[in-house]
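Practice problem: predict the structure.
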Amino acid sequence: GGNWSAASTWQSGTVPTLVDTVTIVDGATVTIDVNANAGNLTIGQGTSGTLTFDATTGRTALHEACIIGNH
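Answer:
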């Protein structure tokens, strides 16, 4: 978990772009602190995972789909 804008938050070591598939794994919390992009977004892999928004800067743009919870 961590801030969306931090490369260390992501397994790939890079901040996601509009063409990336993003998964916030079970037990992780990611805070959107910038204008965030993702092609697909999955929050949690079946039991948990949290996406929060910074109250002053949080925005998101999804290109394809968003899946929350068990799929």
